[in-house]
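Figure 3 (text version): structure tokens given as input.
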């Protein structure tokens, strides 16, 4: 799995930081390492001068083997590492769902309607 960083001019990341981020990404996607050809990590600062929450954006663009449609996921967060971690969680979920669908096309995932229905079910109160 190749990991390529694309960073805008507003963000400064040295070689040590890139090495740390590579190991973080590789560790998170270890299960899918043989299925991923290339992962492009696009990092940007949405608000150049304004110090605002959710200003850092991470876009992970994943190229998967066997001609499967590329999987882009993104996240905005307060800092780069948090944005990457959340985007990695989204990507992991997307990869898991995609490979489950490939193995069994009849699998049905949660739709917004199903989630609303689940939200109406009362939670059991367990006493310890």
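Below: residues designed for each position.
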């Amino acid at each position: 799995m190749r990991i390529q960083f694309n960073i805008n001019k507003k963000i400064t990341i040295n070689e040590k930081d890139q090495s740390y981020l590579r190991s973080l990404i590789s560790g998170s996607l270890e299960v899918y390492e043989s299925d991923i050809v290339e992962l492009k990590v696009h990092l940007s600062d949405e608000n150049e001068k304004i110090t605002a929450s959710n200003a850092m954006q991470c876009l992970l663009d994943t190229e998967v083997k066997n001609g499967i449609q590329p999987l882009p996921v993104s996240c905005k967060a307060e800092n780069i590492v948090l944005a990457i971690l959340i985007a990695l969680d989204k990507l992991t979920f997307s990869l898991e769902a995609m490979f489950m669908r490939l193995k069994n096309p009849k699998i049905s995932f949660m739709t917004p309607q199903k989630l609303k229905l689940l939200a109406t079910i009362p939670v059991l109160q367990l006493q310890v």
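The longest helix spans residues 80-103.
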